[in-house]
Amino acid sequence: MIQDKANSRQNKTNFLVQGSILAAASIISRIIGLIYRIPMTSIIGDVGNNYYGCAFAIYNIILIISSFSLPQAVSKTVSAQVAKGRFSSAYQVFKAAMLFAVISGLAASLVVYFGAEFFTGTLMRTPHSVYALKVLSPVLLVVAVLGVLRGFFQGLGTMMPSAVSQIIEQIVNAIVSVWAAYVLFAHGRTVGAVLGDPEHYAAAYGAAGGTLGTGAGALAGLLFAVFVFVIYMSVYKRKTKGAKKAKTAPFFSTFWMLLVTIIPVLLSTTIYNISGIIDQGIFKNVAILQGYKEHEIDVWWGVFSGKYQLLINIPIAIASAMAASSVPTLTKSFVEKNMDQVREQIHAAIRFVMVIAFPCTVGLAVLAKPIMLLLFPSTADTADMAASFMTAGALAVVFFALSTLSNGLLQGIDRLKVPVKNAFISLLLHVILLVVLMMSFRLNIYAVVYSNIFFAFLMCVLNARAIRTYSGYRQEMKKTFLIPAVCSVLMGAVTWLVNYGLYSLCEINAVAVLTAIFIAMVVYFVAMLLLKGLTEEDLRSFPKGTTLIAVAKKLHLLQ
After folding, report:
1. CB-count burial class (<10 Å; 0-12, 13-18, 19+) for 467
2. In angstroms, rounded to a whole number, what is the distance separating the alpha carbons of residues 533 and 237?
3. How many of the other CB atoms lie within 10 Å of CB of 474?
């Protein structure tokens, strides 16, 4: 009994540590992404951001349909085989997944390249995005293959290759994106001068330069993952020889088993993420019908996608990372029929994500305008607009973080079809609300902000009910939601006062914002400990947890 409890604690700790590794890598990647978007936005402007965002919306949905679900599907299937000691079968899954990735990735690349004019011009009413989208087309094949390698390592219980490859990918992406945007922006202006429209062609070519960095980064991440895979194969072969001999299923059977796993995950992620492209299509077409000018619509969407969504996606990345790490560990516990451990891991993952999502929500809402002015000084004329989006829509961080995580948790306990059904219901009601808000209330871009929050909220409610039904998990409210929310509100009040006071004294926005953010972290950390929202065991599973514990004990915040 004591040994079982010790093993449970060890599994929980390892689960959170692996999730923390991937979460830290995701945060670092998003921060790098945010940093390089600052000079890139200075180069291509809000209109260029609109073209860039449109191309990425189309690319993302094709990626989701073709191969986005591969890492989770591979990690889930590999983890199930490894839990039974079937290392040969796990490698067979890898080979089948690689075949699927090459076929689906190549097909997707061809569809995007040859259909770029239709997607950008006819569907999205943004024809100047065609250059950026064509540059992205070969990236679909690279990302598909890279996803299989990442999923294989995650299924083996290690997030490090995925984490490091993410950071390498984003560093290369940042360097190439800024350089290529600068070079191609100038070239686009020259082309546009000949064609009589230098502003839009410069922005379009600059956006294509930004997407060129995406391809270069993905290729760099793939090369690193292949390098690690080649080195690791000697270790894996030794494990295969030392494992119990078990009959390996025929390749076709393995391929079919993988498809059965991929398709529900694919449908779930497609429906869950397709709202972005549907939003853009509905918004732009309805806005044109309502008489808004095309340039005004481009600026609205450029600010929405290039500033608001860019910032809220940083904390949401933690939930994505935790979802990715939860699938193989939950699958292993579920296969072993250890439901107590399943419930414990669900609880730990939700608490971890909420402890971070709540302060991020409040911080972004309170410091919306100062953050926009700090990060995007070259487009200060739209800072008020971006800040109003953030103030109105910061709550999306909590709901999207929780719904993203809960999708992964349901997949981990082998309820692959449930997120599909929940996402479809949420998407349908989301679209209805978006149309009503635009047509009846004329909320223009704010209709997109509010309907997105509604979509994520519905997903949270439906997924929570499903998790309770299929795992027996009863949601603890006080430490997971109430205490983080109270501490975040307290933090928000102090943060606003510090920022307002410092700016009144020195009138230097960067000094006021950065100081306020640092004090906000300290206030939240202290408040969480004083209200018992965090325990020593919780801190131990955080990155640099030992250091945090030592600091807390020196300050007498922990016994």
Report:
1. buried
2. 45
3. 10
Task: Tally DSSP H helices, then E strands, for the chain.
Answer: 21, 0
Q: Within 10 Å of residue 486's Cβ, how many Cβ atoms?
A: 15
Burial class (CB in 10 A: 0-12, 13-18, 19+), 538: buried
Listed in sequence order, the residues at least 6 apart from 118 whose beta carbon sits closer than 8 Å to its beta carbon are none
Answer for the pair 71, 323: CB distance below 8 angstroms, yes or no.
no
Task: For residues 148 and 225, give the distance between their C-alpha atoms in angstroms, rounded to a whole number.
Answer: 10
C-alpha 69/C-alpha 75 separation (Å) is: 10
343, 475 contact by CB (below 8 A): no
Residue-wise pLDDT tens digits, 67-93: 767 887 888 888 888 877 788 888 888
- Structure confidence by residue, pLDDT tens digits, 187-236: 999 998 888 888 889 999 999 999 999 999 999 999 999 999 999 888 87
* DSSP assignments along 251-298, one per residue: HHHHHHHHHHHHHHHHHHHHHHHTHHHHHHHHHHHHHHHTT--HHHHH
The Cα 487–Cα 13 span in angstroms is 25
Output the CA–CA distances (angstroms, integers) from residue 131 to 119, 209, 211, 401, in the order listed.
Answer: 12, 9, 9, 32
Cα separations in angstroms, 29 against 265, 313, 447: 24, 11, 30
Question: Could you tell me the two tokens for 542?
Answer: 């955080």
CB 357 within 8 A of CB 335: no
Instruction: Please tell me the distance from the alpha carbon of residue 307 to that of residue 38, in angstroms, as a whole number.
Output: 10
> How far apart, in whole angstroms, are the C-alpha atoms of residue 331 and residue 339?
11
Tokens of 365: 């809402």
R_g over Cα of the chain: 24
Tell me which long-range contacts 556-559 makes (C-beta under 8 A, separation of at least 24). 557/526, 557/529, 557/530, 558/529
| Dist. CA 407–CA 322, nearest whole Å | 11
User: pLDDT by residue (tens digit) across 439-489?
Assistant: 999 999 999 999 999 999 999 999 999 999 999 999 999 999 999 999 999
Q: How far apart are CA 368 and CA 389, in angstroms?
A: 9
Nearest CA to 182 out of 15, 45, 14, 384 is that of 45
